[in-house]
């Protein structure tokens, strides 16, 4: 007769897997009915479960950032070795502020949270002295070219505007020297209206073509590529996304200008291993 599966308590499992720092924090999430074990909600820290049970924490991304965008930017900052401490940053397409939150937590001195919408920025950021809320503001708004203090870095999380069209606008904002982290949303870079309608963008050859096109555009416009990686979480509809780091007149970053195609292949392969993001 085979050995029975080893068991542990819910608390032991949550702490061992690194979800929470202590029992009090874990209990709060259980009380909110956000802890699922093998797809079933649990009601007690002391409930016995198999020690290899599957854990799902609903809304867990909000434990660290106001939205999942924070994890996307975090991945880029880590992969591209970008230090934003004491830097002035412009976050365009801020929405509720996932990128903004990440910039602040990483030590940015000031973040301009720019978005065409209004009333979206999370309360914790509205009350943060490191954040300037610039709602109802488009990337092309001339007010962004005369900001004081001037931004040194820009992050872009854009909808309905290609990153290629955004480049000259960002160069006007950052002037003679600057760094950009761009979230590539392939649906907004592809020219085919049929693909845009269907949303069927997760095709390796198509994604490779899109990323190569963007990288070539940057290089042809005297912009250095300092990194390219996949987003660690998918879009809400399961679409795969990528991040590109670029700069001009910056001497403190290594470039991947000569090997960007290899980085594209690595990023695409890694992205196809991701699970679809679930709220």
Question: What do you see in this structure?
Answer:
- The chain is 31% helix and 19% strand.
- The protein has 279 residues and is α/β, with parallel strands linked by helices.
- The strands form three sheets. Strands 8-7-6-9-10-12-11 form a seven-stranded mixed beta sheet, sandwiched between helices. A three-stranded antiparallel beta sheet has the order 3-2-5, with no helix packed on it.
- A hairpin with a 2-residue loop joins strand 2 and strand 3.
- The radius of gyration is 21 Å and the shape is globular.
- It starts with 6 loop residues before the first strand and ends in an 8-residue tail after the last helix.
Give a short synopsis of this structure.
This protein is 31% helix and 19% strand.
Features:
19% strand; 279 residues; alpha/beta
Describe the SSE topology.
Elements: E1 7-9, H1 10-16, H2 23-31, E2 35-37, E3 40-41, E4 48-50, E5 55-57, H3 69-79, E6 88-92, H4 98-105, E7 110-114, H5 123-126, E8 131-134, E9 153-156, H6 163-174, E10 178-184, H7 193-198, H8 204-220, E11 224-230, E12 242-248, H9 260-271
Parallel strand pairs: 6-7, 6-9, 7-8, 9-10
Antiparallel strand pairs: 1-4, 2-3, 2-5, 10-12, 11-12
Helix pairs in contact: 3-4, 8-9
Helix content: 25-40%
Spatial gap, N to C terminus: 41 Å
Structural class, by secondary structure, is alpha/beta
- What is the strand tally? 12
* Helix and strand sequence: EHHEEEEHEHEHEEHEHHEEH
H/I helix tally? 9
Rg over C-alpha atoms, rounded to the nearest angstrom: 21 Å
Mean pLDDT: 91
What is the overall silhouette? Answer: globular
Major sheet description: 7 strands, mixed
Low-confidence stretches: none
What percentage of the residues does DSSP assign to strands (E)? 15-25%
Strand order of the largest sheet: 8-7-6-9-10-12-11
